[in-house]
What does this fold into?
Amino acid sequence: MTTATHHQHQPPQPHLGFVVDTYDPDDVVPRGSPLMTPLRPKLEPSPSPPPDIPAAQVSLSPTSIDGRGKSNRHKVRPTSGDAVLVAYLDNGRDPDIAREAARESLPGDEDS
It folds into this structure.
């Protein structure tokens, strides 16, 4: 049995000097376009300017005329959603906790 050898014909490789000799930067950058300059960013943080808005002059503990504290917020009432949420988070393992959440409201952000 004879094996045939295949000769691959490759095109001649261009001479590197020929490529360098014909490089024209005007072909890459349009005429009249400014060349790139290195950018050196400032790596240190700069202080933030003060805000343009004046600080609010709000009292956090309003008092009524008779001196007792008064809140404009409504009292939070328990909902069935609290019980459903607690039962879901507990995977239904302790229904007593869910029933308690239905009777008493869960604490809000300002209560905790």
Q: What stands out?
A: Residues 76-107 form one domain. Helices lie at 16-21, 25-28, 80-89, 95-103.
